[in-house]
Amino acid sequence: MTRYKQLLPLAAAATTVVFWASAFVGIRAVGHELTPGALALGRMLVGSLTLTVIVLVVRARRRPVTAVNPRGRLLRAIALWGVAWFGLYNLALNAAERHLDAGTAALLVNVAPVVVAVLAGVLLGEGFPARLLAGMAIAFCGVALIAATTSSGGADVAGVLLGLLAALVYAGAAVAQKRLLARVDALTMTWIGAVAGTVALLPYLPALLTELATAPAAATAGIAYLGVFPTALAFLTWGYALSRTTAGRLAAATYSVPPIVVLLSWTLLGEFPAPLALTGGLLCLVGVVVATRRARPAVAPRVGRPAVATSQQSA
Is residue 107 within 8 Å of 160, Cβ to Cβ? Predict the structure, then answer.
């Protein structure tokens, strides 16, 4: 049973990775029929409804009810987190994928762990070690290569900037979520955040209704899929895994998202990143690995034996 419980966070993280990878492809497919705001609202309406049903079922089975009901500053913090991740992040990513293929967008968004390391250096006083600076430089070169490759008419540069904005929001939201999960359970936090994000997107309701009236049935089905699986279920499994492991380890699991996206996009949409853009994306991932790699602690020499000098040092 103990071994089984240890595998649950790993299974939750794997579920999140697969669903989030499929979201990049789904957004790219549906994004041709719906504008970014309408797509974000449609996805979140379905996601919020799904989460509400899950919350009602879970709480009905609990005797007595043990879920935390956030109030005051905690409730406002969760709502702000939801507006950022479920609202702003979705808008930025949807807009980015109108200019970029799904694989390139996924490669850009996954520079988020570098942003997390930078935020930790600025806000948490962890500093800027050499490995972080080196990783930032490598990732920057990758982003620059992607921007240069996709800047055929200037429009795709906007897509690169929107992808980086999505990465910035993703990083900030992940850091905030890790802290908030110490005070509230993952289900409650995800549900409140999703509802807050949905409310923030309500100004796009007229556009959603207008565009759905003429959109094909496949677009409606795509919205339903994005709302149920990459939103409701994937964010629940993400919150579960995040509450049981470190943000750094979980962020490392998302390194596998871009390769899955590239494969799915190639198979389902017939899209594949340009060779130089793919090279730039790989540089981004290398930069992320370098920046987030932790230095190994030095091993103290045994008593009675001379210390052996070594030149090996973790980056």
Answer: no
Average pLDDT over residues 268-275: 82
Q: What 8-state DSSP symbol labels residue 203?
A: G
pLDDT tier at 285, thresholds 50, 70, 90: confident
Residue 196 CB contacts under 8 Å (≥ 6 apart), including other chains: 78, 79, 80, 81, 82, 83, 86, 87
CB 278 within 8 A of CB 145: no
Burial of 143 (0-12, 13-18, 19+ CB in 10 A): buried
* Span between the terminal Cα atoms of the chain, in Å: 38
Give the residue from 34, 82, 303 showing the smallest Cα distance to 189. 82
Distance of CA 231 to the CA centre of its chain: 11
Give the span between the Cα atoms of 278 and 315, in whole angstroms: 25
- The residues spanned by each domain of the chain are 2-292
